[in-house]
Amino acid sequence: MGLLDALFRSNEILGIAEETLEFAIESSEAAHPREYMGFLRGTEADRLGLEQDGLVITDVLVVPGTETNSVSATVKTNQIPNDVKALGSVHSHPNGVIQPSNADLDTFGRGSVHIIIGAPYRRTDWQAFDSQGKPTNLNVLDVDLPETEEFFDFTQADIDEDLRG
Ligand SMILES: [Zn+2]
Question: Ligand 1 centre and the CA of 133: distance in Å?
Fold first, then answer.
C-alpha cells in the first residue's frame, strides 16, 4: 500500500455523529425562514473510540453572519487541528425541497459530502449529496463527542486550588 493509498484511506468519511446532525437540524430550524449554512469538519475515528481508520463528521463550523442558537459549534471547532480541512458543507432549504439547486451544484465541487436539511426540520428531513450532487448514503453514528467543557471551564478558584497543590 502506497503513501497515497494510506492518505485516502485515513480520509474516508465513515459518517456523521448523531449529536452533530441533530445540532445542524436544530440550527436550521432556528434560522428559519432564513437559510442556515456551515462547513463540516471531522475527527479521526480512533479518537472517538472507534476501531476504524477514517473520519467522523463531528463539527459544524458556522459561517459568520449565520444565525445560530447555540455556542457549541464554535466552541467545538477550537478542538479541531488547523490542518483538518472542511469535509463538505451543510445548509438548509427553508422551502423544504431537499435537492441541490444549480447554485449548490456550483459549490459542491469543494468538499466530498454536502448535507441539505429541509423544512419542517424533522429528524428525517435531510439528505447527503456527493460532490456531483448525487444523493449519497451518510451513516449516522452514535459516538460520544469529546467533551470540550473540561478544557475551557477553568475558573480562578480552580487555578488557585492547583497552585496550592
Ligand atoms: Zn441549497
Answer: 11
Q: What is the CATH number of the domain that holds 62?
A: 3.40.140.10
101 grid coordinates: 439547486
Residue 98: domain span:
3-164
Counted domains in the chain: 1
For 90, residues 6+ apart whose C-beta sits below 8 A from its C-beta are 24, 36, 37, 38, 39, 40, 60, 114, 115, 116, 117
Give pTM, 2 decimals. Answer: 0.74
Ligand 1 ion: residues within 5 Å (CB) = 101, 104
pLDDT tens, 64-96? 554 444 433 333 444 444 444 689 999 999 999
